[in-house]
């Protein structure tokens, strides 16, 4: 029956339903458009508040305008760190569905803020990371211009990288900024090229080590747990060991990297502490895993549930360590500028004031809440498919790689390690699937078909190339931008 033959009331209700459907679609489209606008508005409000906090904390004076400008750009940098860098900690847990996006954001905000305020920013040198000889920019005005240019350049690049969907190293961004401004101020001879060579080497070392360890752990779990005939028996034996290894690794990691401000711990002491905690956690979790496994089926799907809670704990600990370590990338240059303006001295180490630390801590958290979900989804869902087991391997790999690299004296990026771990898990699964297909086809007496080989590509190549390109250009691009900004700021400062 056509609409024209329906009773008037039926036609009226159908028309009303269509109109309501259009209104709902319009409201959804409006909300989708307005969401980024609201986020940008809230970010601007936060930046303005940080400028006002700077005035209240330092008072009015001859250098107030410079301090306010530095506070504004420090807040902008912190927002961009939250939007870009935190995804590496939370992405795997969200991609594995161990956490919802909302739960991940809450945990990350709490632990990032705690790490920043409790253990972050022990002391920041006047020239970040020994990139430029301190004597080359000892003049306060030159130093302020260099730090301001580095801060702005790093912030702008992080903002662009987030928009492009590329997780990059905030440390490399600020290092590139200092390099460009320092070279512009004192010439290329003042640049400490040995340090720069180590940083360039970390572009390769970090993701390769992260991917290697993540693939190694996944291979171990598949060999001794997943592929075992008695899967639950193997899980009762090995899952407590893996959880203890995680606990011990993170204890050593936090002792060395995240608690410098609270206590000075050498690497041997951190490793002994990690061993003690790891054994204790293993002993505690043996009966816990035994009870949880008691009612499960002897299937691979059941085993994944055992890794959910440890994965959430590892994501929280990574966020704490990230807040403790990377907050200095946002507030270090700001603290150095405040010190140079107030003391008119750029030749000594700079302690970070509490109000400056607050800008960094809350800026990272706000940046994560407002702009972080996009990259969390990319890292956790769009590079390769993750479950609790694979994501756990990525988190464990991140902590172990940092400790191993520290022991060998190798400079590494936590961002590159985490994303490299995701790549490593994906490429291992590709290799393993290809190996199984080849063995199966050899038994049938035929080679693996090209179409079948293409279907077994479990890592998105476009993301691999895009992220790798962003990593490579981070230092040179921020250096170039910082050099231009240093020259432009000469007319202002």
UniProtKB/TrEMBL annotation:
<feature type="transmembrane region" description="Helical">
    <location>
        <begin position="199"/>
        <end position="221"/>
    </location>
</feature>
<protein>
    <recommendedName>
        <fullName>Phosphate transporter</fullName>
    </recommendedName>
</protein>
<keyword id="KW-0472">Membrane</keyword>
<feature type="transmembrane region" description="Helical">
    <location>
        <begin position="464"/>
        <end position="489"/>
    </location>
</feature>
<dbReference type="Pfam" id="PF01384">
    <property type="entry name" value="PHO4"/>
</dbReference>
<dbReference type="InterPro" id="IPR001204">
    <property type="entry name" value="Phos_transporter"/>
</dbReference>
<keyword id="KW-0812">Transmembrane</keyword>
<comment type="similarity">
    <text>Belongs to the inorganic phosphate transporter (PiT) (TC 2.A.20) family.</text>
</comment>
<feature type="transmembrane region" description="Helical">
    <location>
        <begin position="143"/>
        <end position="166"/>
    </location>
</feature>
<feature type="transmembrane region" description="Helical">
    <location>
        <begin position="352"/>
        <end position="371"/>
    </location>
</feature>
<feature type="transmembrane region" description="Helical">
    <location>
        <begin position="233"/>
        <end position="255"/>
    </location>
</feature>
<feature type="transmembrane region" description="Helical">
    <location>
        <begin position="104"/>
        <end position="137"/>
    </location>
</feature>
<feature type="transmembrane region" description="Helical">
    <location>
        <begin position="173"/>
        <end position="193"/>
    </location>
</feature>
<feature type="transmembrane region" description="Helical">
    <location>
        <begin position="63"/>
        <end position="83"/>
    </location>
</feature>
<feature type="transmembrane region" description="Helical">
    <location>
        <begin position="391"/>
        <end position="408"/>
    </location>
</feature>
<keyword id="KW-0813">Transport</keyword>
<feature type="transmembrane region" description="Helical">
    <location>
        <begin position="306"/>
        <end position="324"/>
    </location>
</feature>
<keyword id="KW-1133">Transmembrane helix</keyword>
<feature type="transmembrane region" description="Helical">
    <location>
        <begin position="38"/>
        <end position="57"/>
    </location>
</feature>
<feature type="transmembrane region" description="Helical">
    <location>
        <begin position="267"/>
        <end position="285"/>
    </location>
</feature>
<keyword id="KW-0592">Phosphate transport</keyword>
